[in-house]
Design a protein that fits this description.
By secondary structure, the chain is an alpha/beta fold. The chain contains ten helices and six strands; from the N terminus they run βαβαβαβααααβαβαα. It has one domain: 3-Layer(aba) Sandwich (Rossmann fold). It comes from Roseobacter fucihabitans.
């Protein structure tokens, strides 16, 4: 199999994929990135546009000598991988767009981008990280993996917090969906509070021959709420030829 590249979302990090790493590494080389300003890379200068983040991931792969690869993007990471599919379409074999959308400013988001910015400034990163991470789980802060997820979110640098929000606010990949060449799976939890069905349906309907997987009784962090089912679906998709 091709190397499998995992791109986390806003206030995420590579450590969020620990429940996937062992399963995926049985089939391919796994490359889980930490975007600048997030996770284990939180001391790197933050970026404030989705195209710049996409170029950063591509340069990271170039530095490791990676040519062809499979690609998963979660949430904001899903925007980044859509942009990568526009920048280097010939290098991506299979693409998984997970709990994401084709536009950065989402109608019906749990709060507006501006509200998130202001609350982040008012409350600080640690408190904001815990509050936002709770929205990713169907059971909120009572979820089994909430504490681990919130701890990773708290590693976000302040500049990456505002830069990520600015990046999402100014981005749309809607015009490029029909040009995506990679075989694509759209994956979503039916209780997602961040990305409503209308956004998922748009990806599914607009990307040529896209496939769809909807997982029941989970929210934005499907890979943490139902890791076994998530892993099985992803591996089935990546290994089916």
């Amino acid at each position: 199999m091709n190397p499998l590249v995992l791109v986390h979302g806003f206030m995420g990090g590579s450590a969020q994929w620990e429940l996937q790493r062992k399963a995926f590494e049985q089939h391919s080389n796994v490359i889980a990135v930490d975007l600048p300003g997030f996770g284990r890379n939180n001391d790197a200068p933050a970026l404030s546009s989705i195209p710049d983040m996409a170029d950063w991931v591509i340069a990271h792969l170039d530095a490791q000598g990676v040519g062809q690869f499979d690609l998963i993007g979660h949430s904001m990471g899903g925007m980044i991988v859509q942009q990568m599919a526009h920048h280097v379409p010939d290098r991506i074999d299979r693409l998984i767009l997970y709990s994401t959308g084709a536009i950065g400013v989402l109608p019906g988001r749990f709060e507006t981008i501006e509200e998130s910015k202001q609350r982040g400034l008012d409350d600080g990163i640690p408190k904001t990280a815990r509050r936002i991470a709770a929205t990713w789980f169907l059971n909120g802060s009572a979820a089994t993996e909430y504490e681990a997820c919130a701890t990773i979110a708290q590693q976000t640098a302040p500049e990456a917090f505002t830069g990520g929000l600015d990046a999402m606010q100014s981005w749309s990949g809607a015009d490029h969906l029909a040009a995506i060449q990679a075989q694509t799976l759209v994956l979503w939890g039916d209780g997602d509070r961040t990305y409503p069905w209308s956004q998922i349906e748009r990806l599914w309907a607009s990307i040529p021959d896209a496939q769809l997987a909807v997982l029941p009784n989970c929210a934005h962090a499907v890979h943490l709420e139902k890791p076994f089912l998530f892993n099985q679906i992803v591996l089935d998709y990546l290994t089916r030829r």
